[in-house]
Write a structure and sequence with these properties.
The chain is α+β, with helices and mostly antiparallel strands. The chain has helices at about 5, 20-30, 50-60, 60-65, 75-90, 100, 105-110, 115-125, 130-145, 215-225, 245-255, 265-275, 345-355, 355-370, 380-400, 415-420, 445-455, and strands spanning about 45, 155-160, 165, 175, 185-190, 190-195, 200-205, 235-240, 260, 280, 285-295, 300-310, 325-330, 330-340, 425-430, 435-440.
Length: about 450
């Protein structure tokens, strides 16, 4: 092509390699000075939400929620699904979702108009404890449907924990209790039970903030046990020191549940640590064990106690990132109460360390699914919001596995959201067809298309 031909090159033609387009020239000369106008139409920053929205439709979430009683509101399913959509988009409070109410492209992609904040406020005010419990029950039923009643499992591990949910207003039944991040502030203190093998939320118990960690734990566990399929041969449980008590461990023993629970280091336990014989297992970590008797009146429970001793560096830090429950003579100690007799101490310790996943689960729920938010003045409204958040957590957990093929290694929500949901898109209408045009420079197009194919083929039993 000669110079004359290049000069008259059609303006809209695809550029050849090595040539410079007009947009490139602008980028080289404008020095960041760009005029801003709010005149773009049919544009959304949530172009990828359609994948997650279609996944919820495949699970029939909205229709199942519409059937519950105990909430004096119509279109319950629509309101709950709208809140879940907000969580997926990174909007944890109803007051943050105005952007979705005004985003007509988002609404076209999801197939629903989006309620305003006052609608959510009235909805949460109309909720009752019975209605909140019904939402949790639906979430549980969907869990067992997605997991096919755990037919591929013979053993399940329950990870038990609690979470302090600080409030900043006059929310009903919020109380002052143990609050390590905001001492003296009122809070709620829900209990949570996850399934360790799949990271699913199984059941929870919403409580006032002045409740002790283990209060209601046996009742919650009884609920969970009624749900476990009969073909499961062995149940295990992991929990932190807040659950170390005679009543709780005795209950686990009575139900033949194998457990690893961090012990509270009472003086009677501390007094035994220095005189034990320790065996080095590498990494400046040594293990030992002893028998301990927990008592309640005349009742006695013998418990195997696994001791993990780590050398403390000169700067006072342990050599590994383990809980420093006690320091004594240059070592930090952790003691785990267990009824697992057939395993070596280090194997029990490693089993307990698998519980670290539950900390990540709670962080994800708190950072992405509104667990730290209490948007209603009413106790039942905040309980409902909590259970909606945990339903959203499970939906995203299943979405990662079934649609994004992340069964073994799952993305954290923030990264997933940036990759698959926050995609700039423009909606165009051609004939009778709507087309959502996503950015041509979107770098994960192949992954997105593969996710579409999996979702299309997905059959939920």
């Amino acid at each position: 092509m000669n110079n004359k031909q290049q000069k008259h090159h059609p303006k809209g033609e695809q550029r050849k390699s090595g040539t410079v387009t007009s947009i490139d020239r602008i980028g080289q000369t404008n020095k960041g000075e760009v005029k801003v106008e709010f005149t773009g139409k049919n544009i959304t920053p949530f172009g990828g939400i359609g994948l997650f929205s279609k996944f919820m439709r495949k699970l029939a979430i909205k229709g199942s929620l519409d059937k519950i009683s105990g909430i004096a509101a119509c279109n319950i399913g629509k309101k709950v699904v709208s809140i879940v959509h907000g969580f997926a988009c990174g909007l944890e409070r109803p007051s943050d979702t105005e952007v979705l109410q005004k985003d007509k492209v988002f609404q076209t992609v999801t197939g629903e108009d989006y309620p305003d904040q006052t609608t959510f406020s009235r909805f949460l005010k109309s909720c009752t404890v019975k209605g909140a419990a019904a939402i949790q029950d639906i979430g549980t039923r969907k869990l067992f449907r997605v997991r096919n009643d755990f037919r591929d499992f013979l053993k399940l591990t329950l990870d038990l924990d609690s979470h302090v949910k600080t409030v900043y207003g006059a929310q009903q039944r919020a109380k002052v209790g143990y609050n390590p991040k905001k001492p003296g502030r009122k809070s709620y203190h829900p209990l949570l039970c996850f399934i360790g093998e799949t990271r699913d939320f199984l059941r929870g118990k919403f409580r006032a903030g002045d409740r002790y960690t283990s209060t209601g734990a046996v009742d919650l566990l009884k609920e969970c046990l009624t749900l476990i399929p009969r073909h499961i041969m062995q149940l295990c449980l992991r929990a932190d020191s807040g659950f170390f008590s005679y009543d709780f461990l005795r209950f686990l023993e009575s139900r033949h549940i194998k457990y690893a629970v961090v012990a509270k280091l009472y003086s009677t336990i501390q007094g035994k640590l220095g005189g034990l014989h320790y065996r080095d297992i590498g990494g400046n970590v040594a293990v030992s064990e002893f028998e301990h008797c927990l008592t309640k009146g005349n009742k006695v429970l013998r418990v195997r106690m696994i001791v993990i001793r780590e050398e403390v560096k000169e700067d006072g830090q342990a050599t590994k990132k383990q809980p420093r429950l006690l320091e004594l003579k240059g070592y930090s100690y952790q003691v785990i109460a267990t009824n697992i007799r057939e395993e070596k101490p280090e194997e029990v310790w490693r089993f307990y360390n698998g519980r670290a996943n539950v900390e990540n689960m709670i962080k994800e729920a708190a950072a992405g699914f509104g667990m730290d938010e209490s948007p209603s003045h009413w106790y039942a409204g905040n309980m409902t919001y909590f259970y909606i958040g945990m339903l959203a957590y499970n939906l995203m957990n299943w979405f990662k596995e079934l649609v994004l093929a992340q069964a073994k290694q799952k993305m954290m929500l923030k990264r997933l959201r940036n990759r698959f949901i926050l995609i700039a898109g423009k909606l165009v209408h051609t004939g009778r067809t709507f087309i959502l045009k996503l950015s041509q420079s979107y770098p994960w197009q192949e992954e997105y298309r593969m996710a579409e194919a999996r979702l299309e083929a997905l059959q939920l039993v």
